[in-house]
Design goal:
This is Alpha/beta hydrolase. This protein is α+β, with helices and mostly antiparallel strands. It is 18% helix and 27% strand. It has one helix at residues 3-10, and strands at residues 13-18, 23-28. The longest helix is centred in the N-terminal third of the chain and has 8 residues, at 3-10.
Amino acid sequence: MTATTYTFARSFTSRYVDTGEVRLHAVTGGTGPALLLLAGWPQT
C-alpha cells in the first residue's frame, strides 16, 4: 500500500449497526454526495 493510499483509507470510519435482527456494516467518510451500496442478487 502506498503512502497516499494509506492516508486516503485512514480518512474513512468503519462501524457496525446492530438492529436486533441483523448486523450491518457501514463505512463513512469522504466528501460530496452520499453513496449507498446494497449487496444482493440482480433478480431481487
